[in-house]
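Case study: MerR family transcriptional regulator.
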Amino acid sequence: MDEHSPVFAIAIAAELAGMHPQTLRQYDRIGLVSPRRTAGKSRRYSMRDITQLKTVARLSAEGVSLEGVARLLSLENQVDALTRRVRELESALASEMLKSPGRRVFAAGQAGDIISLRNGARTQRRTEVVVWRPDPAFFADEDGLDEEDDPEFDDIAERD
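Here is what the predicted structure looks like once written out:
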């Protein structure tokens, strides 16, 4: 039995939560803790509902209004849903990583391209010095002049 299984009748749920059954009916009416219903329309509470009822009792005893309790329970439910979603995504990610180990291992090739490596493989170490020479067309102005040939650049350089 999981915590979401609706198994407790209202009398048992009230006893487990330490409340009067009429209080549980009232909480159901205002939407604070809403149990599932059977085909005959009777209420069935789960362990999660019982826990929420105990939380409502504790917060009410601490002076929190029922509206405040409702907001706190709503936020708690959102956190639970998001936590479940994170677990699902982590599980899917772990499953995907097991299906294709080493798929994300890569290195730079000699021409600067990206190459995939199998899991556990290493590239050969190289000690040569590589000199990078930029493509002059990349650094040319719209007018096609390099900094050395551009008279505007000379003016800017002199001002600095």
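For the exam, be able to explain this: The domain at 6-98 is CATH 1.10.1660.10 (Multidrug-efflux Transporter Regulator; Chain: A; Domain 2).
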